[in-house]
Amino acid sequence: MGGEPVAQINITHESPSFWRVSLENPPINVFGAQAVVEMRALLDAAENDDELTVIVFESANPDYFIAHWDLADDLSRLAGEPPPVTGQQPFVDVMVRLSRLPVLTVSKIRGRARGAGSEFVLATDIRFASRERTLIGQFEMGAGSVPPGGGAPARLPRLVGRGRALEILVGAEDFDGDLAERYGYVNRAVPDAELDQFVTEFATRVAAFDPAAVAEMKSWVDATTLPDESEFPPQSAAFAERLGGPRYQSWADHAFAAGLQRPGDLEERLGTRSVEF
Amino acid sequence: MGGEPVAQINITHESPSFWRVSLENPPINVFGAQAVVEMRALLDAAENDDELTVIVFESANPDYFIAHWDLADDLSRLAGEPPPVTGQQPFVDVMVRLSRLPVLTVSKIRGRARGAGSEFVLATDIRFASRERTLIGQFEMGAGSVPPGGGAPARLPRLVGRGRALEILVGAEDFDGDLAERYGYVNRAVPDAELDQFVTEFATRVAAFDPAAVAEMKSWVDATTLPDESEFPPQSAAFAERLGGPRYQSWADHAFAAGLQRPGDLEERLGTRSVEF
Amino acid sequence: MGGEPVAQINITHESPSFWRVSLENPPINVFGAQAVVEMRALLDAAENDDELTVIVFESANPDYFIAHWDLADDLSRLAGEPPPVTGQQPFVDVMVRLSRLPVLTVSKIRGRARGAGSEFVLATDIRFASRERTLIGQFEMGAGSVPPGGGAPARLPRLVGRGRALEILVGAEDFDGDLAERYGYVNRAVPDAELDQFVTEFATRVAAFDPAAVAEMKSWVDATTLPDESEFPPQSAAFAERLGGPRYQSWADHAFAAGLQRPGDLEERLGTRSVEF
Fold first, then answer.
1. Phi, psi values for residue A234, rounded to 5°
2. pTM of the predicted model, to two decimals?
3. What angle do CA B40, B44, B49 make, to 5 degrees?
4. Can you tell me the mean pLDDT for B98-127?
5. CB–CB of C157/A225 below 8 Å?
6. Which of B92, B169, B170, B247 to mutate to test the interface with C (most CBs of C within 10 A)?
7. B159/A154 CB distance under 8 A
């Protein structure tokens, strides 16, 4: 109370070249202004570390990788902070910087990764998902017809093609590990019991490589695969506008009353056809 | 006789925001000039309907979604019609307009969708296919070495990548539901017994969303995924030229004699290696 | 011994329109300067043959399609040869010409295809792989942190998307037939017992089509799917520079001592996590 808030983004230096980053914001890992501020610090450090080669992002909560954007957050926490370095909206800013990092970034997905959670893993380079425990999706259209505004409409079509991207974005449903792999939404679905070891071994292998060679290779791939950054501002503006509109407000009133952002049935089923107000 | 022909494209308004369109041109659902004229009327209506959010296209014939272009049609039916609004060849014109519609379009594929039938579903946003009853392909090269001219050489590489696109286009073989899903040719293969309910529930979900939000999201995805329209004219010109050449004519003479455009063995196996003249 | 070396690239004319090309450089099919010279002759012939429609590339060695670039080759064999016609580095030059051929090229993959072997099959149009006997990958980063320089960083992202491309390129691991199909790295994994017949029937079908129609269709697909050739020179320059650096040299010293380029355990496991020096 009055001091520093508890950290939501915790970095473990497995070695100088391998960072493990744990996301933890109980009870269900929503992502809001504080996480943006902490991501900025992480990015500042990672952009300037010549030894760093690979970062693994994981969640401290096996049921939620990142539930979604913190819809109760008014972003006032950002008032005293410097402006975003990319000129993008604050969340998009950290996602763009994440995607451009000259190190390999890996999301180890276990639990739900919806909305901004899906956009977070799409901004990392590689997505390994628990086969049994992953639910990933862009639930926003089901939440008062809000188009996703944190990068998904730019990143998904390049990753999974037009047809599947439109299904994910407009249908706003959850995808489990198997289906996400079949769609190319994640690289691979790995049996849950093997996921931790699989990702650690992969990252350990990469961590032994020359960071300059990894950076060079990523720069080549970035040039042909990252979205044109001019795509993001209209999308984040539309998201913000609709979040201030009556249709979302009505949904949010009902949803918060029914358990939004608290553990339980509503959050568990947020990307299913049965959740409608 | 002498009156209006029987409609081939029948619209059911499930609700103001959800249209179901049934394709029916017995006996095997070929697609020709009359269907182009009816598609124009459908597109005129859909482009100007502010409530419409989703259209599902399906076939009245469980064995043929669309068999292929009506190869007995001389297009004289189009003589008195206005010119295509996009400046494209008449079939390409309606496919381009279909792809650009500001509503979500879904193909429910059951039965054969070859040639123009494949190009029709590729011009819709989402393809859900019967796992057991789908055969999809671009059979044209097997029909006298005619390169597909209705959009497939532009749309397929963007959807499934260079390697699989060249296999589909040049190999000219049928793909069943499972293989089409593995290739990304369709979004998903759904067990036939579940397909109708699955698609209706998906469309009903989308139909409840704000049509302006759907249109906005689709406009973002369109900008990065639709082909450059300058690709189509040389492809449709090559198709027309080869349809007038001796190699196709010889094939067509044999094929019509052997049962082309009539129910039976030839049409059933049209995209298999065993059909050669 | 003073005469012509034994040919490594052997062409069988199955018919005027169908060439079968067998790759054979015992004991493990490395690919070096001599193969480049022989590929030039093949490409010269193929580019100027109006009847040729399809080429199938296969290996005479069921365990190695192409092991990788011949790391013991100093390229002196190329000293007296004409310069590359595309202005690219010699290996990239033949890969670019291969990708641009106006005929359909098919790789029948059985055994290992690593490094330049993977880049070879990526430069062909279609990849059919033995389900049980394929190991494909870009092992170079595991060999002293050398970024692949023969086209993979340009071709893979367009084929399999950003996430899987970065995993393949940076992770530097082997992919078996099933996983390569799921990633879109190959068109399809075919049971080994069926692969030969499957590919022969596919090629025989295509060989019956009009070569001008195949060339026309490929030209349309090439225009939207081939990499911009300006991407290759920095990649091949980085590869060459790192091959001359201490990190690769140390790896190569250990690897040649441990069995590199000879039949046996090291080459069999070259793209696995257990091979580290």
1. -65, -30
2. 0.97
3. 145
4. 98
5. yes
6. B170
7. no
